[in-house]
Amino acid sequence: MAPGFQSLLSGGDPRSLGRVDEVITTVLDDPGSCRELLDCLYGEDEIVRMRAADGLEKVAATQPGIVEPFLPELLGPVARIDQPSVKWHLAQIFGEVELGEADRQRATALVEGYLEDSRDWIVITCSMTTLTGFAASDAELRERLVPVLRLHLDSDRKAIAKRASKMLAELGETS
């Protein structure tokens, strides 16, 4: 019997993605196994949660339809997981899947909260990217987002300042 996703995603160097590619391949070949990958987000092991979130994001980037049935869960209990690597991958997922109007509003509010509350530079940059994508077709969000992006231009963290500048340019704003 093949090892389960929990086993494949655990252990090793915590800075590596371990065997995430194997899990992604399995989910892409057998979309029904996405449930098992999602369940890995609820475990106690922070490394497994990070790798599972990464795997879900990569599946969503390749075949968003596999992840879309799980949007209510991603916008609900998964969104309450207080771990930066889960948050930044969720922000990315929301930018890659097809969202209905209600889900788009929930995802926007969630990611705006990440941008406002997080101290993690990756969460901040991923949130800026996703919100900029949403703002391209949402004038109200754009009005809220542009001033926030301008504030981030002065960040002492270069990755944040550069992303803010890039996102302003994508919105046709000068930095």
Largest sheet: none
The sequence of SSEs as H and E is: HHHHHHHHHHH
| Secondary-structure content class | mainly alpha
Mean pLDDT score, rounded?
94
**Uncertain regions spanning at least 5 consecutive residues:** none
Describe the global form.
globular
Residues in helix, %: 55-70%
Number of structurally distinct domains: 2
What's the end-to-end separation, in Å? 56 Å
**Rg calculated over all Cα atoms:** 17 Å
- Our estimate of the beta-strand percent is under 5%
Annotation keywords:
175 residues; mainly alpha; 2 domains; 11 helices; 0% strand; globular
Notes on the structure:
- This protein has 175 residues and is an all-alpha fold.
- It has 2 domains: 1-98; 114-175, no CATH class.
- Helix content is 68%, strand content 0%.
- It contains 11 helices and no strands.
- It has helices at residues 5-9, 20-29, 34-39, 46-62, 64-67, 71-75, 84-96, 101-117, 121-135, 139-152, 158-170.
- α10 (139-152) packs antiparallel against α11.
- The termini are far apart.
- The relative contact order is 0.09.
